[in-house]
Amino acid sequence: MNEIQQQRHGSIDENSDTEPVYAVETDGLVKHFGETKAVDGVDLVVPAGGIYGLLGPNGAGKTTIIHLLATLLQPDGGTARVFGHDVTEAGDDVRSRVSLTGQFVSVDEDLTGHENLVLLAKLLGYSRTGAKERSTDLLEAFGLTDAGDRQVKTYSGGMRRRLDIAASIVVTPELLFLDEPTTGLDPRNRNQVWEIIRALVDNGTTVLLTTQYLEEADQLADRIAVIDEGRIIAEGTPAELKASVGSGVLNIRVRTAEQRAEAERLLGATLDTSVERGSDPLSRSARVSNAEHAVRAFTKLSQSDVEIADFALGQPSLDEVFLELTDRPTDAESDRGVTQ
Amino acid sequence: MTDTNAPADPDIEHIQGAVASGDRPSAPNAFSALLTFGWRALLKIKHLPEQLLDVTAIPIMFLLMFTYLFGGALAGSTSVYLQELLPGILAMSVVFITIYTGVTLNDDIDEGIFDRFRTLPIWQPSVIIGALLGDAVRYTLASTIIIVLGLVLGFSPNGGAFGVLSAVALLLVFSFSLSWIWTALGFVMRSSESLMNASMIVMFPLTFVSNVFVDPETMPEWLQVFVDVNPFSHLVTAMRGLMHGTATTEEISVVLLMSAVLIIVFGPVTMHLFRREQ
To answer: What confidence category does residue A262 fall into, taking pLDDT thresholds of 50, 70 and 90?
Structure first.
């Protein structure tokens, strides 16, 4: 896998010998829609290869960033380069390297799945027979052979999404934009899409995906930029982002109700943080900045009269990261629980 | 969803293979991109044959209605009236259905497939022109129906087959050019309904306040002024001339000139809007 990526880098890298060429590099990118600053000075560096996640709530500016990078929009300020090619000055060079799967289905619903893929293959330069072969192959790979001759409007949500992604890789792009690829999909279809995305990356394609699901970014992305109100408010690997809010949360459950007050006091004193009540009346949780503090808190508890029925040291979720960064919960939080 | 509809699972290894074999061929030239978009328009007709109702039923209705309603009163006899009316009704029917070009485009933009087209490394105007070529097929179909029906009803063009075909060709050129107004509006309007309404406001006066139905001599003078400058009247005059073998070079040149102006003005406007963000 790394070899393939290396080769790709080598072929892309022809116009600069010293500096590495990033899949995406933006500098102070700005886009206004009337009064609203949809993108407000974004500096983004996406390394080639792997999956990069743009995470943020609805209306944060994720889609606008992708549209700017895919040359669908012109920036109002700043610069953006895709594999070293400026999106404003070298639009054609950018377009010949990227592919976009939009937030909404971007295939022709009146046409059949097969016709859609043949259409795109022809527009990308395949011959008539070449286009048909490519379409047949892709339909088979994406489990759509039986549905190939049906109009897309009869497809289920998961099938549409798969056709959409198939349409984006008729020609393997160097950079694939996926705008909220699993929004509205059930867990089974969502997992399939995740597997597909990982398969694309194994071949060396760089994927830039937007999501409002923290779990999705955590599962897929090698690096994440957290976007809020048109700005990047945090950037790093999922682990780094989590580390920035401490190493996790200590949950305990005491044996009897009388011990709650004592447990709360001990936890608060040793961890130097506020202790929160859980949905279970017997449980208490507290944030821990590092694992050692957690051990100390346990020791105190075991030396006291408090009997611990159950405990868990949980990794912080990206929800907590977001809450920490913006002081408000994400919109997605209520839609879909985060499993850790 | 029933089991017969349930799709097979995607085959991850196969996908990896497909990704590995997706080498980029050299980009298609403008002409083949054009043909591909034209092919797409034809596929749409194939899947939505009910779309053809406007190019079949409506022209037939117009021709029968106006010939038999007004023919006797306006020209003394329906068969005399038909000779004058048919070229006008033909022009009117086809020019009216050019509106659908904008409507289709507007729907496309809403569907998101447009974003995909706009990220393809192709000659960008081919998206629009290809669709217009597909529409030309619909115009031709409508023209054929009207002319065949007209011949059955007793239409006898002095210009012969060549005259009739030239008139249709001129009509196609004008319609193609006029469509650029609708494509531009297709980008501007928020919904296809509002586009439809706006187009109707333009099309009704343009086609009815013309020389299609009655001799402008019978109209009040201020109205004659409008009818005389109405581009649609010029189109009808040229088509009548071609069909009956009396067309002058000037009549035809005026129509071609108008067509050129429409393209020169609205072509760039459309392409500007096409490249611009929504």
So the answer is: confident
Q: Is residue B267's pLDDT more than 90?
A: yes
CB contact under 8 A, B19 and A123: no
Q: Which residues of B touch A102 (CB under 8 A)?
A: 112, 115-116
Domains in chain A (CATH in brackets) are 2-242 (3.40.50.300), 246-315 (3.30.70.100)
Contact at CB, A108 and B111, closer than 8 angstroms: yes
Q: How confident is the model at residue B11 (pLDDT cuts 50, 70, 90)?
A: confident
Tell me: the pLDDT tens digits for A88-109? 898 888 888 898 888 777 888 8
Let me know how many helices (H) and strands (E) chain B has, helices first: 12, 0
Contact status of A189 with chain B (Cβ, < 8 Å): no
Residues of A whose CB is below 8 A from B111: 104-106, 108-109
The answer to whether B113 contacts A147, with C-beta atoms less than 8 Å apart, is no
Please provide the size of chain B in residues.
278
More confident residue, A184 or B5: A184
pLDDT digits (tens, 9 = 90+) for A5-31: 444 444 444 444 556 689 999 999 999
ipTM of the shown complex = 0.83
Among B14, B48, B115, select the one facing A72 at the smallest CB separation: B115
Looking at beta carbons, which residues of chain A come within 8 Å of B27? Answer: 96, 124-125
Question: Chain A 169-188, CB below 8 Å of chain B: which residues?
Answer: 169-172
Best of B19, B23, B40, B107 to disrupt the A interface (most A CBs within 10 Å) is: B19
Is A34 or A248 the better-scoring residue by pLDDT? A34
